[in-house]
Amino acid sequence: MVSLEWYRSFVEVYRVGTVSGAAQVLHLTQPAVSQHVAGLESALDYPLFQRMPRRMVPTEAGKRLYTEVIAAIERLESITAKTTTIDAPKILRIGTPQEFFAEMVLHRLPQSFQWLYRIHFGLTGDAIAELLEGRLDAVIATQKIARTDLEYQLIYEESFWLVTSPRLEISFLSNLPQLEEYLRTQPLIAYGEDLPIIRRFWRVVFGKRLDMVPRIVLPDLRLIQKAITLGNGFSVLPDYLCERAINSGELQLLLKPTDAVTNQIWLAYRKSERESQSVQLLLNELSRKGAVKP
Fold first, then answer.
1. What is the pLDDT of residues 162-179, one digit of tens each?
2. Paired residues of 73 in beta bridges
3. What is the CATH number of the domain that holds 251?
4. φ/ψ of residue 266, rounded to 5
């Protein structure tokens, strides 16, 4: 006899793409979810998934079954939700760069008892892997990693500015070559040893390759801002982080390029979850006028 739980496990594996991710959603063990899917395949007498190293890929039969049962499963889930705890909070798990989240996203999250937020800081590549495994619901990504099962929505385009300490006298600098030559005598503060943004900034703005070694490496943009304020050197920072500090006098703007050096920031989520409440919440809050500018 086929159990309803077998169908629920099948649907979640189909949605998330992994047994481990489905198990987390269903609050079951991985072996239990695997047994449910195997039991359903045995009862139907055809495979529903191809077992790949990191993904469960639905077969054509699996796709047909999903189409046939999903409406009934969602209807049963909605009835269960209405007859149990209507106000039960939903968990929203977000992977994100720490600085962007702190400056641009945290104050946009609805302060509602309907949502519980679980924030995971880290690099985009690692966060996307967690998203694909079903351990995150969405990722704020600084790059697009091509995957057919993911969608990206642009939420912000950051511009990079050259900034230094307000203690530094720069009034004698009158042109770009003079500024570039002068900066080579000053200590550079960077996010990492490889300097990807600063090198691109130098190439675009000054038309030269950068061969400087950073004096200080700080893997936190807000700490870089603090170090510059204290007079430790100069750096290239995103506009959302330094604009307020420049206006308040904590930082001094060396250069806001006419030909802007920019980087796009995206909200990434699984295609199968595009209509979910968690994804729609983030899209609404991060895309609405006056929030995070597109």
1. 999 998 888 888 899 999
2. none
3. 3.40.190.10
4. -125, 155
